Amino acid sequence: MRAFPQTRKEGSVDGQTGELAAGNRAAHRQTFKEFAGLLNLDNAADFQLLMTWCVCALTPEGPYPVLTVCGEQGSAKSTLVRLIHELVDPSHAPLRSLPSSEKDLLISASNAHLLAFDNVSTISAATSDNLCKISTGGAVALRRAGTDADEIFLEFKAPIILNGIGDLVLRPDLADRALFINTSAISAEERRDSGSITRAFNELSPRLTEALLDLLALARSKLMTEKAGLWHAGKLPRMAEFATLGMAIEDVFGEPGSFTAAYDKNRATAADDLIESDPILFTILELWDEKRCWSGTMQDLQVEIARRLKTSGSRLPAPTGLAQISSHVKRIKPILVKKGMMVAFHRAASKDRRRTLELF
After folding, report:
1. Which CATH class is domain 278-359?
2. Tens of pLDDT along 309-349?
3. Cis peptide before 63 (omega within 30 of 0)
4. Which class is 22-271 in CATH?
5. What is the pTM of this model?
6. Checking CA distances to 336, which of 112, 163, 290, 293 falls within 20 to 30 Å?
């Protein structure tokens, strides 16, 4: 760990009203505008989501959305992650490789506040499940080295950043916990050397830290009194704490409703991207578009998947095991419900009692 930059002793949130003074609000907006100029982001909505994630990452209790930064080579992904890590958890070693073993990953999570994994290419199913655990919190007991019966108990809940080229998150349970930020290639005329960016960031860092801490105090104040009414129609998304926090501080970045619009669009885009890489989800949505209702066994669904992948010329791998298909349908059920369908499992009345799926 390294020290945070020196800041003012007192924050800018009024202790009685729980609001930011107009002058401080304007100063923070200017600070964020200068910081946005150092990052290679596509739009202001992504910047608002990113700063909301930073405020969330500064809370001690979480849970924390998994920040996923994707973009082509040369789009300054690692620079963005390094600067965000410096804001939330200053460190001598901000970027690390994603551990291949569950034990190493969970040990890392229990010993650092923020985990930033650089140049991630693929995420296994087991690693994806463990990242979900770290995001929302968990614990594990491991055998102490050199003993037969002694255990060590590790608790973990930590903000995570994943950085890589292409689609990293391919499982719906992790996608539902993730926040996706995309970066585009930088032209030769617009590219800056890392030294100048670091110097500009170091100069801005004390003001940025003050702004984030003020926003954290502002969110805490509002959430104590307004939490029940912060999200539209009372329908909170999966990462409810992050959503309500974003609503509490959105007026620093934009108009009322700006966070909701940005977060809803981010989640919808993630779901659409998941469809393109998931043959089971792809097939079910096609069946739904064609028939608006469908019923069959897991074997019937397996045949449909293989037929449609062949017809479309898709290179997606076709699932093989019926139990695997059944399990995956349960994982993607929240996405299917959002698309407007009802999903139900039954046991066939036949002697073999095979599991059937009904879409309606």
Report:
1. alpha beta
2. 888 777 667 777 888 888 888 888 888 888 888 989 888 66
3. yes
4. alpha beta
5. 0.86
6. 163
